[in-house]
Amino acid sequence: MSFKLTLIAATALSLVAAGAALAADEKQAGEPGGMMHHKGAKLESLDIDKDGAISKDEFLAPSIEKFNEIDTDKDGKLSNTEIEARRAAWQEKMKERREKMTDEPPAEAPAAAAPESTAPSTPEAAPAPAGEAPPAH
Predict the structure, then answer these.
(1) Segments forming the whole domain that contains residue 55
(2) Is 120 a domain residue?
(3) Residue 54 CB neighbour total at 10 angstroms
(4) Residue 119 belongs to a domain
C-alpha cells in the first residue's frame, strides 16, 4: 500500500471515529448546544479555546498527535515500518488485556445487605410502652 493511500486511510478512519463520537454526543446532549461526555471522553476537551465550538484545528489535533506518536523518526511521514510497529504494539496491548481478563478470578458478589429494620425511625412513631397512652399529636 502506498504511503499516500495509508495516510488517507488513517485520516479517514480518524475523521469517521471523531464524527461518530460527535454525533453520539449530540444525541446525548441534555440541552440544545450542550456538550456532554461520551464513554468518558468529554467534547469540551476538544474545545481548546473554550469558545463553545470545535474548530477544524481543534478537531484534527488528536489525529495530528496520534500521527506524531507513530512517526518515531520525526520525518513527517509514516513508513510501513512505523505503521507495522504501531500495529504490533497495539496487538500486544490487546493480548495483555485479554490475558488479564481471563487470568483474574471473578469478583465476589457483595454480601447480602441486612434486612431493613421494621422499627420506627422516629420517637413519635414508636409504640407507647405497655400501660401508657400514646402521645397526642
Answers:
(1) 3-103
(2) no
(3) 19
(4) no
User: Looking at the domain assignment, is residue 36 inside a domain?
Assistant: yes
Mean pLDDT of the 129-134 span = 61
What's the CA gap between 6 and 79, in Å, rounded? 9
> Phi and psi for 71 in degrees, rounded to 5?
-75, 75
The cell for 78 is: 509514516
Which residue do the cell numbers 496491548 mark? 93
How do residues 97-116 score in pLDDT, each as one tens digit? 999 998 766 666 566 555 55
3-state secondary structure the chain: CCHHHHHHHHHHHHHHHHHHHHHHHHHHCCCCCCCCEECCEEHHHCCCCCCCCCCHHHHHHHHHHHHHHHCCCCCCCCCHHHHHHHHHHHHHHHHHHHHHHHHCCCCCCCCCCCCCCCCCCCHHHCCCCCCCCCCCC
Cell of 74: 520525526
Domain count, the chain: 1
Name the grid cell of 99. Answer: 490475558
Instruction: Give the model confidence (pLDDT) of 15-26 as tens digits.
Output: 656 655 555 555
8 Å CB contact between 85 and 66: no
